[in-house]
Specification:
Blueprint lengths: L1 E6 L6 H15 L3 E6 L10 H14 L5 E4 L9 H18 L3 E5 L1 H18 L4 E6 L11 H22 L4 E4 L2 H9 L8 E3 L6 H8 L2 H7 L7 E6 L8 H14 L3 E6 L5 H11 L4 E3 L12 E3 L8 H6 L3 E4 L9 H8 L2 E5 L15 E3 L4 H13 L1 H18 L2 H12 L2
Parallel strand pairs: 1-2, 1-4, 2-3, 4-5, 5-6, 6-7, 8-9, 8-12, 9-11, 10-11, 12-13, 13-14
Helix pairs in contact: 1-15, 3-4, 4-5, 7-12, 9-13, 12-14
Length: 417
């Protein structure tokens, strides 16, 4: 079967990792896999080197490589002229490849890609089968000043209208969490029979192995065995919650030198967050990618951009994964952290509660609840036996539902294989 995946950007992110893992496993299963994407730029990294490495090793393993197609006009921002150009480019690509399945990912690629694929399907009378995955909600949290709230409501309305139209040009919609299905149906997007939940797949073995490498990882980061390491794995960007971490935990960090924040990732908000942590909050910071070395007084370690291969080891040194994101589908970092031995504290948004089950596999907190966030971290730091029990519960859940094999088996059922 020939399968064309379309993603807006191949940055280092959850939906992109999900897409690339799907492509790799489908290629191993003998499918002819193609991946189209827009330009990659900025401090958020790229998944392209991983795909290229997979292709480099493909001949040795008897696997067909993944064909890559960059679409210059496929941008994240709403730009009507560019969007029309992207639709034309994708239509031409689909006509040339004649795929059996076109599988779109993320909002922009999902809307433009579905319209392009459906136009080909109508002309050809039934092919390709058009599938879309909702990795996260395109709708932004309505917060801030009255003017900002008004603007967000307008943009959310535009996205909802576009998603309604795109759902009419789609055979099936995959949600990574049941919450995504509920949110879309509540906004009048799609029909119930179109939706199927397929969990994101993880490279389970890599994260389980990291749990056994905790001591060595801490030595590399100059962390003591007694330190309480509170980690966040996310882009340093809007809606990811790093400001809330500083607000909620500043007093406790000052009172407890053994509390250490480990921020894994990079992004457009990095410089501002570092200024706030140092100049305003007085925390000693260390930026590893700038050649700085942490010491006993360091309380905020920033890794900068790291390769996906480094993520398991960094999660393995954490006691707690703090995930205060305001906008998620189902955050991949939460099941990954459980596999690596870190217990999650997360904001109760979207599909997060489907893996961070409050009181069973972690602790949920209402968004922007500073007292609740602080209390949850204090409880976690003081209760290592409880953390261990919840991590054990979480590993059972993740190993059952979040493997790459389970994900691709689910995709094939939706494809009709």
């Amino acid at each position: 079967m020939r399968i064309l995946h379309i993603s807006t950007r191949l940055i280092l992110g959850g939906s992109q990792e999900n897409t690339v893992l799907s492509c790799e496993e489908q290629a191993r299963r003998g499918h002819d896999v193609h991946l189209a994407f827009g330009p990659i730029f900025g401090p958020e990294g790229s998944m392209r080197p991983r795909v290229e490495a997979f292709n480099h090793n493909a001949s040795a393993t008897g696997t067909q490589p993944i064909s890559l197609h960059e679409v210059p006009a496929l941008l994240r921002e709403v730009r009507p002229s560019q969007d029309l150009r992207a639709k034309r480019s994708l239509t031409e690509l689909i006509e040339r490849l004649s795929p059996d399945v076109v599988h779109t990912h993320s909002s922009k690629a999902g809307i433009v890609g579905r319209l392009a694929a459906w136009s080909v399907k109508e002309r050809r009378g039934g092919s390709p089968r058009v599938i879309h995955t909702i990795h996260g909600p395109p709708f932004m949290p309505v917060e801030g000043s009255p003017a900002r709230r008004f603007g967000v409501r307008i943009m959310n309305g535009v996205y909802a209208a576009a998603e309604r139209k795109a759902a009419l040009h789609c055979d099936a919609i995959i949600s990574v969490a049941d919450a995504m299905t509920r949110q879309f149906l509540e906004r009048g997007i799609g029909r119930p029979e179109q939706f199927t939940t397929v969990r994101s797949g993880m490279e389970v073995g890599r994260f389980l192995q990291a749990a056994g490498e905790r001591a060595a990882g801490r030595v590399r980061l100059h962390l003591r065995p007694s330190d309480a390491v509170i980690g966040t794995v996310a882009r340093l960007a809007e809606h990811k919650g790093h400001d809330d971490v500083l607000t909620a935990l500043l007093a406790d960090l000052r009172a407890n030198p053994g509390w250490k924040l480990l921020w894994v990732g990079d992004g457009w908000w990095r410089q501002r967050l570092v200024r706030r942590a140092t100049a305003e909050s007085g925390l000693r910071t260390c930026q590893l990618d700038l050649g700085e070395t942490p010491n006993d007084s360091t309380q905020l370690i920033l890794t900068g951009m790291v390769s996906p291969d480094e993520i398991p080891g960094l999660m393995g040194v954490m006691d707690i994964l703090l995930h205060p994101s305001l906008r998620e589908g189902l955050p991949r970092t939460v099941p990954q952290a459980l596999l690596a031995g870190a217990c999650p504290v997360a904001y109760d948004v979207d599909g997060t509660r489907e893996v961070c089950i409050d009181g069973e596999t972690g602790r949920l907190v209402r968004p922007h609840d500073m007292d609740g966030l602080r209390d949850a971290i204090r409880m976690m730091v003081a209760s290592p036996e409880l953390r261990a029990r919840w991590v054990t519960n979480g590993k059972v859940l993740v190993e059952r539902e979040f493997t790459v094999k389970a994900m691709c088996d689910g995709l094939e059922r939706v494809y009709g294989i």
